[in-house]
């Protein structure tokens, strides 16, 4: 596939300068093959950016970090500890391989009334002139404090527990009539359709997909009005609306997963 992409770009005379790969896509939780992509970037001298906003925290797990193999070859990586690690919103990091003060060269405005260069300490410690914003919060402190409190092992445990709980949910869901997985999850996003009683066994009928797509919005309305759950849904490409249960909250238990499935069955029994 990557060879095809290269051929296509070269054949239309385009001059790409950047490739953005994703580690943990928002809906399906898919991981791009970073080693293969980095090979292409290396051959053509392209900047490799990895959007690891969602999946970057998997690096903390010895068991699951293979999903990001090759990320060490990226030129830049975006990572949101406010997602899987549950740091308070917001806490987003941009990690750069560059050591030439690229951000300062790009964003520095050298305002004479800010960030004086003739101070008594190492002015490289002043990060203000590296970013677009001027006034901003110390978001990294939340990550630092959380890391201190939990330790690397504590954070690893959170990630591993999320994977284990997502796996439990998938196995339980497979045992029940009326739940259909969109795909085997790679990550903690469990994407599935709830097939209500009136649609079971009707997979062959011409309006099946259209009717199935109307189920998730109805169930979402019911769960919100009941106040029992908040779980998102969306269409994706040619697939109609399906639920996306993201198992990330470290307080979740297997009992919550059971409740989730029971509650969907209860809310959808008359559909
Ligand atoms: C959440 C997410 C983003 C957006 O991150 P923000 O910090 O909220 O802007 C980008 N990419 C992926 C894959 C995401 O899941």
Automatic annotation (TrEMBL):
<dbReference type="InterPro" id="IPR002129">
    <property type="entry name" value="PyrdxlP-dep_de-COase"/>
</dbReference>
<keyword id="KW-0663">Pyridoxal phosphate</keyword>
<dbReference type="InterPro" id="IPR015421">
    <property type="entry name" value="PyrdxlP-dep_Trfase_major"/>
</dbReference>
<keyword id="KW-0732">Signal</keyword>
<keyword id="KW-0456">Lyase</keyword>
<dbReference type="Pfam" id="PF00282">
    <property type="entry name" value="Pyridoxal_deC"/>
</dbReference>
<comment type="subunit">
    <text>Homodimer.</text>
</comment>
<keyword id="KW-0210">Decarboxylase</keyword>
<dbReference type="InterPro" id="IPR015424">
    <property type="entry name" value="PyrdxlP-dep_Trfase"/>
</dbReference>
<dbReference type="InterPro" id="IPR021115">
    <property type="entry name" value="Pyridoxal-P_BS"/>
</dbReference>
<comment type="similarity">
    <text>Belongs to the group II decarboxylase family.</text>
</comment>
<protein>
    <submittedName>
        <fullName>Cysteine sulfinic acid decarboxylase isoform X3</fullName>
    </submittedName>
</protein>
<feature type="signal peptide">
    <location>
        <begin position="1"/>
        <end position="21"/>
    </location>
</feature>
């Amino acid at each position: 596939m990557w060879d095809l992409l290269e051929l296509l770009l070269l054949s239309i005379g385009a001059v790409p300068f950047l490739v953005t790969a994703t580690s943990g896509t928002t809906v399906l939780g898919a991981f791009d093959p970073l080693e293969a992509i980095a090979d292409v970037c290396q051959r053509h001298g392209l900047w490799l950016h990895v959007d690891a906003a969602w999946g970057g925290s998997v690096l903390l797990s010895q068991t699951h970090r293979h999903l990001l193999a090759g990320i060490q070859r990226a030129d830049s990586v975006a990572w949101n500890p406010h997602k899987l690690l549950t740091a308070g919103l917001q806490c987003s990091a941009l990690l750069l391989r560059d050591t030439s003060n690229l951000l300062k060269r790009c964003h520095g405005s050298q305002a004479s009334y800010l960030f004086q260069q003739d101070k008594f300490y190492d002015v490289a410690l002043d990060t203000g002139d590296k970013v677009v914003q001027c006034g901003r919060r110390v978001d990294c402190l939340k990550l630092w404090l959380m890391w201190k409190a939990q330790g690397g092992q504590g954070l690893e445990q959170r990630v591993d527990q999320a994977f284990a709980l997502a796996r439990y949910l998938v196995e339980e869901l497979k045992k029940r009539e009326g739940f259909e997985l969109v795909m085997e999850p790679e990550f903690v996003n469990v994407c599935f359709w709830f097939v209500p009683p009136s649609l079971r066994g009707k997979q062959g009928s011409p309006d099946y997909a259209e009717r199935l797509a109307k189920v998730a919005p109805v169930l979402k309305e019911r769960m919100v009005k009941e106040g029992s759950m908040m779980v998102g849904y969306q269409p994706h490409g040619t697939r109609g609306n399906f639920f996306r249960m993201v198992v990330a909250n470290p307080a979740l238990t297997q009992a919550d997963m059971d409740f989730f499935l029971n509650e969907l069955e209860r809310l959808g029994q008359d559909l």
